[in-house]
Amino acid sequence: MNKTLCLLATLGSGLLSLGYGQPAQANKVGIINIKQSIIRTTDGKKAYENYGNRYEEAQRLLQKRQSELQALRSQLQNSRYVLKPEALGRLEREVELKDRSLTRDSQEQEIEFNQEQVRVVRDLTDKFRPVIEKYARENGFVLIFDVSSADSGVLFASDAVDVTEAVARLYEQLSTAARNSPPAPAK
């Protein structure tokens, strides 16, 4: 952690002193919470809504299977002294198999949806990257840190250097313009 902070401080001060040919006072460092910026846009809201709907549907199906398994367990418990040993054995195996299947499917679904969430964020972040670069160039920023993760290395930053909302607005403007522009003629 200390190495990361030292590296970030050294990198930041080095970039500030380089200045990219600009006077030193024109160099700025900013922060962005990329996840919050994404969620504030139409594309982000739509992507998270689609993800949320698929996740909720999958959870409903697992919950239905959980209820069915619980009903089988109750049947097993209530029939323990009534059923013949062969029928009892079949019911116990059925409960055991359904329990294993549900546990496995639940774990696989959790992994799948975690990967899907990472993919959604990555895809939207890739769309945001050029917008962040455009915003940074136009506003004199030489460095913008993503602080959406707790381990970003940034311990404090003034609200004055937070570009989250501004980048979301710029993204929304550019994507709206792109959606409303006529398609390019075919060659």
Give the proportion of residues in helices.
Answer: over 70%
Element-by-element helix/strand order: HEHHHEH
In round numbers, the mean pLDDT is 85
Given the helix and strand composition, which structural class is it?
mainly alpha
The number of helical segments is: 5
Beta strand count: 2
Quaternary? single chain
Percent of residues in β-strands: 5-15%
Furnish the topology, listing elements before pairings.
Blueprint: H1 2-18, E1 28-32, H2 34-39, H3 42-79, H4 85-139, E2 141-146, H5 164-180
Helix pairs in contact: 3-4, 4-5
Kindly describe this structure.
- It is a single chain.
- The protein is elongated, with a radius of gyration of 27 Å.
- It has one domain.
- The chain has a two-stranded parallel sheet with strand order 1-2.
- The N terminus is likely disordered.
- The chain contains 5 helices and 2 strands; from the N terminus they run H-E-H-H-H-E-H.
Structural key phrases:
187 residues, 2 strands, two-stranded parallel ribbon, mainly alpha, elongated, 6% strand, 5 helices
